[in-house]
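User: I'm putting together a small comparison set for a docking exercise, and I want a reference complex before I start. The sequence is below, and the ligand is pyridoxal-5'-phosphate. Could you produce the 3D structure with the ligand included, as structure tokens?
Assistant: Of course. I'll restate your input first, then give the structure tokens for the complex.
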Amino acid sequence: MASDETKILLRESEMPQRWYNIQPDLPAPLAPPIHPGTGQPLGPADLAPLFPMELIKQEVSQERWIEIPDEVMDVYKLWRPGPLFRARRLEKALGTPARIYYKNESYSPAGSHKPNTAVAAAYYNKAEGVKRIATETGAGQWGSALAFACALFDLECTVYMVKVSYEQKPYRRMLMETWGAEVYSSPTDLTNAGRKIRELYPGTNGSLGIAISEAVEDAATHEDTKYSLGSVLNHVLLHQTIVGLEAKEQLKLAGEKGPDMIVGCVGGGSNFAGLAFPFVKDKLDGKPIDIVAVEPEACPTMTRGQFRYDFGDTAQLTPLLKMYTLGHTFMPEPIHAGGLRYHGAAPLLSLLVDQGVIEPRAVHQLPTFDAAVQWARTEGIVPAPETSHALRVAIDEAVKCKQTGEEKCILIGYSGHGFFDLSAYERYFAGALEDYEYPQAAIAAALQGLPEVDGTD
Ligand SMILES: Cc1ncc(COP(=O)(O)O)c(C=O)c1O
């Protein structure tokens, strides 16, 4: 029997003490990252210039549970445990028999799920004597999260912000600067990768792939500096599982047996995986759960890309990862969900999509804003454009329940608020937003340039 509460809260003492590592529970082996020079699987030494050793260990760990350090728990307590909400007003407005819950990550200081891993990254870097962290940011959410985390652990932070977001979202930049970070519009003329792209594509909007190249180059060429990635990698997804672990406890408190459907948006895959992975284990153990990963039609990585080895960045500086990809040369249209404009998807998530455990879906920009406004006018909170992708699908599913009479329990990953995205809402209301469908020919051309990896591809 579902409870009549709107907010389902945990006490600090009930916060999960360990992250869940899905690697030992995967239904098929995860292909290893490959060194682009040798064509051989990477060893820890290859990653050491970029990441602290503890994160490298987590990247390959086969331990199902990994203890969250006390210092990280202490910072998490600034906003965690996060609330689980029942979207009662939306349910009523839709007239649906579905019970809709959302795990609200917008309460963190940066306004999204991103600090869950930023705090861990800052902690492990600090513990290993690093002075500065370089990173990229798309929407500005990840850069904000890392700037916040670095401030708390007394680390310097350099952020390469994709040019289109730098221009669309000045308040995100100011937020990062308030936390003490240095922020550059990418591509810059500070790195070889940036200079080359500026020469090849004058006037480019930038892309996450380019900004990653710049941040990686910065870290690799400075002794006291490491790199931090806010999504895609196994250890990042691991840190985000606190979201799903909390949600699981909260659904029990709400009197639910578990979700029938989980919906989240995917850029690199971290918020989605964080919410879904603790439930994926239940699904693999036989529980029927539909797990839906939503991406933009303008960047259809999982729905129209290929599952194969590719670089994580445009300048081909990163290791090769086996993942769904649109090709590392992918140049996205300037949709407002900046955090979803990435050519790849996390290898762990990609594997589960390939295995049919997770279902990918793509949605257009305008319907996501329709959903966002409907949400804001019922549930009150204004969602990030990224989050609105999940809301679109969840609302469509709840409407289907109205037609079929199914009383589904739908769990949404509410990855962040949209307070710094109001210029996008303004453009939506002015009728100035467009839908973009990424052309098949462009995908085919980008995939032509993918490296061949012997035997494992
Ligand atoms: C609010 C929000 N949701 C989702 C994402 C997508 O990232 P990921 O797929 O790693 O969760 C971003 C990325 O910037 C974001 O800012």
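The chain is about 40% helix and 15% strand. The chain has a mean pLDDT of 95.
User: Thanks, that's exactly what I needed.
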